[in-house]
Amino acid sequence: MDSQNSDEQKVGKSSKNLRLFLFGLGGILLTAIVIIVGISLYRVYHLAATDGFTVGVARVLRLPAFKINGRGVAYSEFVEDLKAIHVMRDFEKQSGGEGATLTEEQMTDQVLWRLANNVLINEAALQNNITAEEKDVEEIKSQVLQQFETTAAAEKELQARYGWTMDVYERKVIKPYILQNKLSEQFETNETMRIDIRNQAQAVLDAIKNGADFVTQAKIYGSDSTKDSGGDLGWFGRGEMVPQFEEAVFALKKGELDPELVETSYGYHIIKLDDTKTEQVKDEQGKTIEEQKVRASHILFRFPDLTQYLDKAVTKAELHLYLNIHNPFVEFKKQLETSTN
């Protein structure tokens, strides 16, 4: 009986020791996990490290590089694109291409912009029921492959330029390209959007007719680089502007505002002729002739396009960059605010 009790006590003690051991082991493992996660968070968000261990943990934990409109863009995806642009820069250095001089900041900026634009394009595509269908993908792939003797040669070129396979290139380049093209076409042919832009342009023209300052209105509403100078186009002669614009300008008198909107391939223009002069120039035969020059200002209300849409979408988007790197989104918004004010 005593022997049995003793055996039971030994078994109980052994079980207790095992529980203590497992508890201790669990604590050690938990501590190790916490340490690994802590180190990884530091390496991701403070150092933006790109080593395999850090990226692997980031992938498992689904750590975002940034969020846009509530959608997280994975840090692993950011690193994947960053490595590709590094490969591209090295390739450009060997071939003397334009990308050979890209700085680290410029490369991270490009990656962030590409990833953010892809999110916004996907959102717009979803809203407009646009998809990259398989036949579209195969058509673009066929066009790409036609530039090479074999599929293997194309794969080799992709590896050399970006470190990508054709499947990765399809996912990262071809599908976004298809969505962009379809969206561009839809924006450019959207009659409702064009009418809205024309109505806005007409309202500004009416305001100027009623005494609003042309320069001020140009700085507020202009959609090209002349807005910063109040719409000033400088001096120019015949043949330097698109026909519709040129015809309208040369029909005005000095100081006159065109009472009607002028439509060109760029959009709707409000035009004012600021000054005129005559210059002596040489014609094609070398003969001296007099040429009329004009100085005009305009306010351009650009037709809807994808670039314009994306610029506006970025300014309205909720963007949170978590990485300790240059933030191109903040800089872009500041520039836009400065040009608007």
**Strand elements, count:** 7
Largest sheet: 4 strands, antiparallel
Average pLDDT value?
A: 88
Number of helices: 12
Distance between the terminal alpha carbons, to the nearest Å? 96 Å
Q: What's the alpha carbon Rg, rounded to whole Å? A: 31 Å
Q: Which residue ranges are poorly predicted, with pLDDT under 50 across at least 5 consecutive positions?
A: 1-5, 7-11
Strand order of the largest sheet: 3-6-5-4
- What is the domain total for the residues? 3
Secondary structural class: alpha+beta
Helix content: 55-70%
Q: Could you state the order of secondary-structure elements as H and E?
A: HHEEHHHHHHHEHEEEHEH
Give the DSSP E fraction (strand runs of 2 or more residues): 5-15%
- Gross morphology is elongated
How would you portray this structure in words?
It is a single chain. The protein is of the alpha+beta class and 341 residues long. It folds into 3 domains: 19-60; 62-188; 214-303, Chitinase A, domain 3. The chain has 12 helices and 7 strands. The protein has helices at 2-45, 52-61, 75-95, 104-127, 134-145, 151-162, 166-188, 191-209, 214-221, 243-250, 306-316, 328-340; strands at 64-68, 71-74, 232-236, 262-263, 267-282, 288-302, 319-321. The strands form 2 sheets. A 4-stranded antiparallel β-sheet has the order 3-6-5-4. Helix 3 packs across helix 4 (104-127). The protein is elongated, with a radius of gyration of 31 Å. Mean pLDDT is 88; it is low at 1-5 and 7-11.
Brief synopsis:
The protein has 341 residues and is an alpha+beta fold.
